[in-house]
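Weekend entry, working from home. Most of the wet-lab plans are on hold until the incubator is repaired, so I used the time to fold the two sequences that have been sitting in the queue since the last round of cloning. Logging both here for the record. First:
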Amino acid sequence: MKEKQRNQTNLSLAKSLYPVALCAALSFIVLARTAAAQNTIPPEDAIRFLEQTSFGANWTEIQRVQAMGYAAYLQDQLSTPPSGWLDRGLCPGDPGASGNPCTPVRDFYTMYPVQKEFFTKALTAPDQLRQRVVFALDQMWVISANLQGNFQASWMDYYLQILENDAFGNWRQLMQDVTLSAGMGKYLDMSGNFFVAGRAANENYAREILQLFNVGLDELNDDGTPILDDQGNRVPTYTQDVVVGFSKAFTGWRLQNDVLDGTYCLPDPPNRRCPNWRDAMQPVNPTANHDHTDKLLLGGVTLPARPEGDPSCVGGCVVQDLNDALDNIFYNHNTPVYACKNFIGYLVTSNPSGQYVSNCVAAFVDNGQGVRGDMQAVITAILMDPEARTAPDPTLNPSYGKLREPVLAITNVLRNFGVDGSPCSTTGNPCTDFVLGEQFLPGNLRMDEDIFRSPTVFNFFPPGFVIGGTDPSLYGPEFAILSTTTELARINMMNALIYTGIGTSSDRPYGTRIDPAQLAAYYAGDDGGLVDALGQIMMHGTMTPDLRNLLVNQISAVTDPTAKAQKVTYLIATSSSYNVQR
């Protein structure tokens, strides 16, 4: 009872301080916007930069970009230590095992804690660029908790640790670490892919590391355009024989032995054993389990038939064949092009010019010091390219930009208005509990991007998706999950965030909403000024005169400043002009 009274006293004290804290917060917004206007980089350009390098702009980061400049800010982000993904430890393979200490099931055997951690990072972490790159890599090198048996939170945790550690490293190291990761090994069946005479090796990983992760289906020029044969047809990147060759090169590996720690993980009963999602896969009896016959790879290269102990194999032929296979992909001319097109698509625009792609490819091939695959060089080339840093003219380049995928639509609007777990002025509780994974949201708010739970290895939307009824060369990957149902969910989501809040439940202790006071702070007594201010932070100055006039007219009869600001924010957030990031 005393504890309860003490908590109530603390809550009352906290609520009494809200007016002071709120005034300070709103003053900061005004001062930040005033200071931003006096810097060299226009705030609109800084906001646009932050949309590409983070999960959304806020006035603190806008000021930092303006004070530091693009290059220095980018270098600062590249030097910021990783915020780290939580190590939740390992749990028994069976959530129903007798005496299983990994409870409740939601917190250990679903993506609930991982998704919550993701949105916490997206809204609050200082290493925004690294986490944005991790998000892109997770969509390029896909594993999914939708696979039966791969539902442990720690399974995804350890995979995300790899992506985070390698985000600013080298593409070749990323290839190595992902290939041997327990998560990928289980998801695409490389674990336990053993040689059996007369039986074909499992081709799942071999096919996807080519088709989806590195080279794509068609031979490409450095500008991203397809190479054509004499008859004008596209040239396939690989054949079925090449897939077979790689599948053989990847034989002989398996997850490391189950972990037995004496507390969570016990030898008996067997369902108390903990699968080892933490450590890299290892070779298992490679003399028998690795395929030692010859293997056809990309570019007509053939790895020779050789026994496990052949002196040409460093670490054994099971290791040498895997390394040679990965090197063959890494040095293929398609890999820089395919990786660059995907990265540009996830960060900047779905339809980059040939010159933009070529500039990125040049950085991938050589970082200026003779190093291939330097991720920092690639990321810098993408984000500092004139095509990224120059605001597009919609009349000259109407296809520039990308649809805001659901996750980024949510994080951008929340970061714009300071939703970071701080108390809401209306309730005294945090404005968000960071529970924004779709599996744990009301059904009418689900937009078909339940992060870490993609339906297939092709991600939620394939990178080569073409918008129906348009130019067949016009890509719009995110449109693959835009339908009348998901568009209505997007509208419902914005309504919830701006007006009602996402409701509470046993999974959502506080829900999520934008503090109305944050919105009202943008109103200075003038309807046009309110529209301009909100259009600046949300649309970085790209609002058309027609849309501006419409918004001003819509709020002319509204008297309450908060209601005015909410209505403008809602109408912007649900407009096509906002939802296509340009």
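Second, folded right after the first finished:
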Amino acid sequence: MLCGDFHPSKSATLRRDNDPQASVPGQLVSNRRRIVAWSTLGSVVTLAVLCACLIADEQRKIRSAAATVISKPLERVAEINAAFEELRALDAQPCSATHPAALRSIAFRSAIIRDVIYQGENAGSRCNGNLGAAASSLLSKSPDFTTETGRRIWRNVDLPLSPGVKSTLVKEGGYELLIAPEKQPATVEDGYYALSIVLLNRASSTMLVVRGADPGLGQPLFISGSTYWLRGDLFSVACLPGQITCYVLKAHGLAVLVSNLMLLIFTGILAGIGTALGVASWSARKFRMRTIDALLREAVAKKELFMHYQPIVDNRTGETVSAEALMRWTLRSGESVSPVVFIPIAEANDLIGKLTLLALQRVSEDFGAFLRTHKNFKISVNVVPADMVDSSFHQSLQHHFDKEGIAPTQLAFELTERTSAKLESAVTVMLELGGRGHEIYIDDFGTGYANLSYLSDLKVDKIKLDKKFTDTVGTGTLRERIVPSVIELARELGVEIIVEGVENNEQVKYFRNRGVHLMQGWFYGLPLPSGELIRTLEVTQGWGTSQVPRSADMPADDVRYELELAAAAMPSAA
């Protein structure tokens, strides 16, 4: 496992201490024009979106207000239509003794009809419900408006007995209704909307504004339920049945913006800040990734990377039988860089081969003396197929291990199964290494391309079951049900299994009960510097004193760092 025990959140903020322009603040300063431009654009786009949302919301509000405004007129029209229908059905002789009583009854039962009048043809008999047959004509001029159905309307008509009390007179056939004026809707009284009431005769293309100012809309725009933005103002149209009378609400565009001014300002500021922070974060990340390339090349050239070793334990005896070498990198500033960060960059920059050579050198330096005196202990090193076909790899093995008296059986290679093609390219070399005594492991098994039938051709000695399978123990998932099959097939092929990512006793029991005994994970120990691990082995396994360079001691910060990594990842495994 190259980096399975690391958490990406622990990656360092990368910088050079002696280069002020390499710090994140320095990068932000150098990119201030870009940040200002993008934050301005972000503010403009956000304000545009917000304005569009405000407009949509205002359209919804004004449509709702128009529906409220028209609710009472709808009732008035229904009442007027019902009155005319009842008048048409009367059987009484016009202006007879019973006729005015019938007219009076219709007026008394209505909340808006002040009087009902009958006017015979050719200035014939005339009577009404309240004034009787002696009433004189109320009409002395042509109607103000004639509807498409023939109804005639006079506005601002004075009652005979109440001068100055205005009414609207509506005439259909021989009957006339005196209608009380309509009250101002509450939504208009608050001053936010301007109301106009318009009478339409589409057949004659005539239009009469009976209340408010002329809205300035052409007849084709008087469609009930429509909303328009015209000349910077918002209009909503609601018409009574038949499209004879239309109510138009108008909101001034400036008033809409002013009413939301603080929201626009506040949102614009937040958008600018958010965009600036986003651009700054992107610039800083891009800068860090550019910087780490150079820092990694320098660190590899100066051999500043080092190894920690995580024990692999036989759960039957509790003894540590081997350890995996894991590469670590700490900057001069003391900040640790996660392999999750630097391994992919090394791969992208063709540095993996150099890291492998450095790992072999470090293992020889850290564990050479120990391995020469403990022939049954081994170290496993992560490699990729390209390493195995590189002559430098074999020269390093000869120089750091063969000449130092370290047996091939004490050095195993963990091969990452990323592509089957690359694995096939290394088959011959793998067989040669196996013939010399080196064991070959397939690392993170189950996440790549190798399969169990392929393992027999590669002469693999062990597979390392990926932590993703270990985490499924006790979950009842499909992946957990696959694990026993993997164990059984591996056993039939004569391939041992090392379980990665063991973190609790339940997992230990699960695999031990299925005959799997080699385990690795925080349950058994964190990755440690060679000196720390060797002293632990001396104490726990009674292997006596070894000559270990004091430079290999683990700094307190490294101990804390490994513990923090363990603590950070524990919840995710639950």
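Plan for Monday: verify the second prediction. The chain has two domains: 52-258, 303-573.
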